[in-house]
Structures are given as structure tokens and as C-alpha cells.
Specification:
This protein is of the alpha/beta class and about 750 residues long. The model is unreliable at about 385-390 and about 720-739 (pLDDT under 50). It folds into four domains: about 5-240, Alpha-Beta Complex (Spore Coat Polysaccharide Biosynthesis Protein SpsA, Chain A), CATH 3.90.550.10; about 305-370; about 395-545, no CATH class; about 560-739, Rossmann fold, CATH 3.40.50.2000. It has 28 helices and 21 strands. α5 runs antiparallel to α8, α5 runs parallel beside α11 and α15 (about 395-405) runs antiparallel to α20. The two termini are about 25 Å apart. Strands 1, 2, 3, 4, 5, 6, 7, 8 and 9 form a nine-stranded mixed β-sheet that branches. The protein has a six-stranded parallel β-sheet with strand order 18-16-14-19-20-21, sandwiched between helices. It has a four-stranded parallel β-sheet with strand order 12-11-10-13, with helices on one face. The longest helix is centred in the middle third of the chain and has 35 residues, at about 335-370. α17 links the parallel β11 and β12.
Length: about 750
């Protein structure tokens, strides 16, 4: 039996609003072998109920509530102690906050970093701040001591360059954290812990943004720490300057008790304490001067422009003088050298002139901003529209502007044409349109949705009219023109409206006798959400511009007469994440036969070549039904939707139709075999979608199917009274469709 290698400690206190998103981001980590220890420090906002609800469905979570308020230091220490009690053999430990968000690969990447570098005691990623209005534009902070074997150098650089609030949430070696005293009962304990860990080993920063930290502004204050750390009363030493308390602790533990690994000796340890007192005192003095400058400019705002101007002039003058001196020394006595010197001087003179005129422009801008119209209407509107979000802010503005123009007037609006993948249409395009029609109050009678394959059923609740592309051209013509579009654009994504898009729009206009129409093109959605897909924007970007709801009821009563009363819908096709290999073919055949032994199976193979997905035909057999004879280019998606909506479950290749099951309340299993071809954000959205709609969407690597077979056999044994179930009720309900 394998031993859990990683324990994550989650101190809880009154963050119920952000807690569910934090828990979900931890539970969907690609590294699964961890325990999540949650300790509630007497929260009063329903935090405990939220964690206990999650714990019912995930056995990795343990929850406990302190009998009395311990404060932040006491709670963080108790989290670590409970974690070590529950998993004594754990190699790695990390504290997590109850309001931040982690990338699905966060734990996997940090574990790999520690595994590969035995000399590293703490690994942490780069991070982005999440403000009240989304990601902030502050660049990720960077610092590490990898490769520094000299303890004194590590100690000095850590003191000078550490960012305690960022590094303390890294993944560390549990034994090193224990030797470093965990969280000592002093002010600013995270800095002290990191200084002691610097004596234990090296720090490594992973060059990826894997942590999204909620930022509530510069709220650091010693008074606030005294209240939060010591709820039963502040000890006298808590009123000493923090760096004096740290130096005393270091001198006592290193110089008197000799507690350090590797051992450095008591004399050297005492010197480290004295050195810390000196370095931390200088750092504190620098911080106080900086704060004094900030306070001065807050009360005497007229001085700040003067200060900035003088500082800029001084720095530019020093740089200019240095470059000029170096050039004068390097100028050759030849005519070419002198001409080059004159050219460079002209360039620098131009730079100086521009730098002198730019302040005038800034003054004019400040005058413009101070106008009542700007302050009372323009600036609040920009803030409301989230124009300040970087880098998605300009796209939010462009998107809203395009939708406002398209929705203006009372004329018809062509929505589309949609030429990309089915998965993106179901998962993003339709929810985006639902949001847009509500946000801009667009009458459903004005909308003409242009899609293909009978997808009009998906739009029925907000769009009155529909045009099917295959009703205007043959399948062969569509493939030829669409393949040309892919070659020109480099992929399927409709980032711009191309010639094929415009050709279809003209066909719709001619078919309906329209002359003047507005168009809502998919490029509006693609350009906006690409920032989230490529991890340059938070999940809030999608949440604020999408509305997920159950799909409208499908028709097809006549179709129901041709189907079994109870059945499982299945569709497997090959794609980069599920390539055409002998192993995958054999797996699909075995899985379909096993499903057919339990319940009739309806294959959703279309027999059509609409896109680059190649259906796999496992052949017919007992309990296997085919419906490809019912499929036509203009009805294939409608038929598949009707069948999925009536099924007990859907099993198939992950992507495309596997997203459709949750919209109809149908439990779904999507398989893949090449995880490198998957986009983590799509996996995250699909799982959030399933939870939001109250159904299950399980995504499995084919390597995990042996565990699924074990679970199914266990369920069979439990039903017959042979064995006790070994899985949670939530997982059992998901797997019941296979038993």
C-alpha cells in the first residue's frame, strides 16, 4: 500500500465566499497523492459547512474545528501538527490559504522540482494577483537560491530579496519545516521561518505562473498582526520591534540550543543572530523611510510630481553622462568614428527633447481627468466595464462595443456562422450568446443562428430562427472550403471573419431576402476568452460573460420508438488526445462489449466526414444498436442530442459530445490517452459545468480504466451481498451506470 507523500494544510477562518473556488482548485490537481487537512479556527460564516460538504465526496479531505479561537499562529501550527499526526511519513508539506486559486498542475510541478533537487527545501511558483476586478498588472515576483551552497550567502540574499507572503505558500520538506520551528510565536513569523529554512537548504522558484493570489491591498500592519496572532492577549515581547524578536530567537536556537541542520556550530549560530539583527534593522529603516515618503505624498500631493520629475531627470542625467564618457573614450580618431559619435549625439538630443515635452502632455492629461464629466461619468463607466483588466481589458471593451453595435436598431441579427468544433460551440459559444442576449436585451425574434448539423435545438430557448449550412451547400463543398479556411488561419478557431464566413453570411441574406443585417461573429468570443484559455486571465473572465443552463428539451418522439427503453449512448472517435492506435482500438471494443453485457448500447457513429474526427466502428454484436441510417448532414447533431438526452449515461472520447451530456443531466465519462494534447482550462470548465448543472462528468486516462473495472466489480459484489463497497457514495453514484 503506497504512503501519501504530500500533505496540504488549510487553515480556515471566515472566508466562506472564496472557499469553494479554493477547494475546487486544490481537488482538481493533476497530482492526486495528497491529503488535505482543514482546521477551522472558530469561523462564524458557514466555512465549516462548506468543507464538510466537500469532505463527503472526497476522502482526501479531513476537517476539524478548534474548541476555542487560537489565532493565526496557533491555527497554522495546529494544521501542521495534525497533518504530521495523520500522515507521519509524509515527505512534503504546504500551507494553503482559504481564498486563493491554484493551477491544476501546481502540485505536480512543485513535487517534481523537489524530487529532482535533494538540496532544495522549498519550491514555489510564480504568481499573479487577483484584485476585486480580476488579475492585476503587477509582474510576477522572482527570487531563488538554487546553486548557492554557501550558507552565509543564502542567508544574506534571503533577508534582502525574499517575499515572505509569496514564498510561505510553497511546497517544503516536512522534516526541514519541523526543524525550523514551524510558525514561532513572534510577529512576522513567516519571515523568521524562511530565514531558518535558508539555513536548511536552497529555495527554488518554478518559472511558471501556477498560483493566483487574491489581493486585498496593502493591509500589512503590526497592530493587525498582534490582534490576529494573539487573540487571548498580546505578550509583552510582541510590542518589541519584530527584527529584535527574530534576532533573539535565532541567537537562542542557533547559539545556545544549537538547533540547525546542517550543524553550523553555536558560535557561528550566534553570529547569524547578530547578523540578522543588523540586516533586518537596516531593512526596517529602509521600509520606514519608504513609508515616510508615501505618507508625505499622501498629505502633500503637490510634492509627488516634483519628486518624480527630479528623480527622473537625475537618473537620466547620470545614465547620459556615463554613456557619454564611455563613448568619448571609445571614439576612434577616424572620420567614421566621429560621424558615428555625431549621429549618436543627435539621437540622444532628440530623446532629451521628447523627455522634456512629455511632462506637458501628462499635465494636460491630468487636467482632462479632473473635468467633472470625466470624473462623474467616463471613469466610473470604464471601471464598470473592467477596461483596466490586463491584458483582457481592451478585448472586454471591444466585445461590448461590437455587441452593442450589433444589437442596436430593430433589424435582424445573424449569429455566426459557427464553423469550429462542436465542443467549443457547446461549452463556450452558446453560453456566451445566452449571456449576450440577456445583457443587451436582444429580442429572440431578431436572431438568425447559423450553424450546421441540426444544432438549432441547442439555441431554441433564445433564438427564433436558424439556418443550417448543410441546407445551403453540400458536405463536399463545405469540407473543401472549410479545409481552405483552416490552412489560411492555421487552425479551426474563428479568430477573424474570413472569406468563407462572409460567403455564408451572403448566402443567408440571399436566402431570406435581407439587405441590411448586423452580425455577431464567433471571433468576438474567441478573442475574449483566449486570455482565459491560455492562462492570462482568471476564471472570472469566463464567469462574467457566460450563462450556463440546461439545454432545451429535444423532440424526436418518433426516434424514441426505435431505441431501447434503457440504454447507454456511446461514441468513440480518434483525435490527438485519443489517437488511432491498436491499444485504443482494442480498449474501445472491450469496453463496448462489457457495457453491452450490462445494458443495451446505442452507437452514435454518423457515417459522415464533417470534420477531422474519425469515428471508430467496433462492429455489431449482442446488445449493440446503430443509428447511422438516421443521420444526414442536416440532422446528425439533432439526432445525437435526442439520443443522449434519453440515455442513462454517455461514454466516449473526451471532448465534443462529452460536454453535451451534463447539459441534459446525463452522467458522462470521457476518455483520453494523450494528456499532453489536452488544455487544462477546458477540463476545469467541463468539471465546473457538471457541478453547476448537478450531474457528473468523469474524465479518465485510459491507464485509469483498470481502477474503474475494479470499482465496477466491487459494486457488483456489494449488490449481491458478497463484499462491502470500498468507495464513497458519491463515486458509487457516478459509477452505478456501468454496473
Amino acid at each position: 500500500m503506497s504512503v501519501t507523500r504530500v500533505v496540504i494544510g488549510l487553515p480556515l477562518y471566515n472566508h466562506a465566499e472564496d472557499l469553494p473556488e479554493a477547494l475546487e482548485s486544490l481537488l482538481i490537481q493533476s497530482f492526486l497523492d495528497f491529503r488535505l487537512v482543514c482546521v477551522d479556527d472558530q469561523s462564524t460564516d458557514g466555512t465549516g459547512n462548506i468543507v464538510q460538504e466537500y469532505a463527503k465526496h472526497d476522502s482526501r479531505i479531513t476537517y476539524s474545528r478548534n474548541p476555542r479561537r487560537l489565532g493565526m499562529i496557533g491555527n497554522w501550527r495546529r494544521v501542521f501538527c495534525l497533518a504530521m499526526e495523520q500522515v507521519p511519513a509524509a515527505e512534503y508539506f504546504a500551507w494553503a490559504s482559504d481564498h486563493d486559486i491554484w493551477h491544476p498542475r501546481w502540485l505536480q510541478v512543485l513535487v517534481r522540482a523537489l524530487d529532482q533537487s535533494p538540496g532544495v527545501v522549498l519550491a514555489y511558483p510564480q504568481n499573479h494577483r487577483i484584485g476585486p476586478d480580476g488579475l492585476t498588472e503587477k509582474k510576477p515576483w522572482m527570487f531563488e537560491t538554487v546553486g548557492l551552497n554557501d550558507i552565509r550567502t543564502r542567508f544574506r540574499l534571503t533577508m534582502r530579496h525574499m517575499s515572505a507572503g509569496n514564498m510561505i505558500y510553497g511546497l517544503g520538506r516536512a522534516d526541514a519545516i519541523k526543524r525550523a520551528g514551524v510558525f514561532r510565536r513572534v510577529l512576522v513569523p513567516d519571515r523568521l521561518l524562511l530565514m531558518e529554512l535558508a539555513l536548511e537548504g536552497q529555495f527554488q522558484q518554478v518559472p511558471e505562473v501556477l498560483w493566483f493570489r487574491r489581493w486585498y491591498g496593502p493591509i500589512f500592519s503590526l497592530g493587525r498582526q498582534r490582534r490576529a496572532f494573539f487573540p487571548d492577549g498580546r505578550p509583552l515581547y510582541a510590542f518589541l520591534p519584530w527584527w529584535i524578536g527574530h534576532a533573539a530567537v535565532l541567537s537562542w536556537n542557533l547559539g545556545v540550543l544549537g538547533q540547525c541542520c546542517p550543524r553550523i556550530g553555536r558560535v557561528v549560530g550566534f553570529r547569524f543572530g547578530v547578523r540578522y539583527l543588523w540586516l533586518a534593522g537596516l531593512l526596517h529603516a529602509r521600509q520606514q523611510l519608504k513609508q515616510l515618503r508615501v505618507d508625505l505624498f499622501e498629505h502633500a500631493t503637490f510634492l509627488k510630481p516634483i519628486y518624480v520629475k527630479c528623480r527622473g531627470v537625475f537618473r537620466r542625467s547620470m545614465r547620459f553622462c556615463g554613456k557619454l564618457e564611455r563613448q568619448c573614450r571609445q571614439v576612434a580618431t577616424t572620420d567614421e568614428g566621429r560621424r558615428k559619435f555625431v549621429r549618436d549625439m543627435r539621437v540622444r538630443l532628440g530623446d532629451l527633447v521628447r523627455s522634456a515635452t512629455f511632462p506637458l502632455g501628462r499635465v494636460l492629461l491630468r487636467i482632462l481627468v479632473s473635468l467633472p464629466l470625466m470624473r462623474g461619468w467616463v471613469i466610473p463607466w470604464l471601471a464598470r466595464e473592467e477596461i483596466h483588466q490586463v491584458p483582457s481589458g481592451p478585448e472586454v471593451f471591444s466585445m461590448r462595443k461590437a455587441l452593442k453595435v450589433a444589437s442596436s436598431g430593430q433589424g435582424p441579427i445573424i449569429v455566426g456562422p459557427w464553423l469550429s468544433e462542436v465542443g467549443f460551440e457547446v461549452l463556450y459559444w452558446i453560453p456566451f450568446l445566452v449571456w449576450a442576449t440577456k445583457e443587451f436585451e436582444i429580442d429572440r425574434d431578431r436572431l438568425i443562428v447559423v450553424s450546421r448539423g441540426g444544432a438549432h435545438a441547442w439555441y431554441r430557448d433564445f433564438a427564433e430562427h436558424h439556418e443550417d449550412i448543410f441546407g445551403m451547400m453540400s458536405l463536399k463543398q463545405f469540407r473543401k472550403r472549410n479545409d481552405a479556411r483552416w490552412r489560411d488561419g492555421g487552425n479551426q478557431k474563428q479568430m477573424v471573419s474570413g472569406t468563407f464566413d462572409e460567403f455564408i453570411v451572403n448566402l443567408v441574406k440571399n436566402r431570406r431576402g435581407l439587405t441590411d443585417v448586423n452580425v455577431i461573429h464567433p471571433s468576438i468570443m474567441y478573442r475574449l476568452l483566449r486570455y482565459y484559455w491560455y492562462e492570462k486571465g482568471a476564471i472570472s473572465l469566463l464567469n462574467k460573460h457566460s450563462v450556463y443552463r440546461t439545454m432545451p428539451a429535444t423532440g424526436g418522439d418518433a426516434l424514441a420508438k426505435t431505441l431501447p427503453e434503457k440504454f447507454i449512448a456511446v461514441r468513440f472517435y480518434f483525435r490527438p488526445s485519443f489517437p488511432d492506435t491498436p491499444e485504443n482500438r482494442g480498449l474501445v471494443v472491450r469496453m463496448i462489449k462489457r457495457l453491452a453485457n450490462r445494458m443495451p448500447v446505442v452507437l452514435l457513429n454518423t457515417g459522415l466526414s464533417v470534420d477531422d474526427h474519425r469515428d471508430f466502428d467496433p462492429g455489431v454484436g449482442r446488445g449493440i444498436h446503430t443509428v447511422d441510417h438516421l443521420m444526414t448532414p442536416t440532422t446528425n447533431l439533432e439526432v445525437q442530442s435526442s439520443i443522449i438526452a434519453r440515455s442513462r449515461a454517455f461514454v466516449g472520447t473526451y471532448g465534443g459530445l462529452s460536454y453535451l451530456g451534463p447539459f441534459y443531466g446525463v452522467p458522462t465519462i470521457g476518455l483520453f490517452s494523450n494528456e499532453a494534447e489536452l488544455v487544462p482550462t477546458h477540463l476545469d470548465v467541463s468539471r465546473r459545468l457538471a457541478r453547476h448543472l448537478g450531474t457528473s462528468l468523469v474524465t479518465l486516462d485510459v491507464k485509469e480504466l483498470s481502477m474503474v473495472e475494479l470499482l465496477c466489480d466491487t459494486l457488483d459484489g456489494a449488490d449481491s451481498g458478497i463484499a462491502e463497497p470500498i468507495i464513497s457514495p458519491a463515486l458509487a453514484s457516478r459509477m452505478r451506470v456501468l454496473s
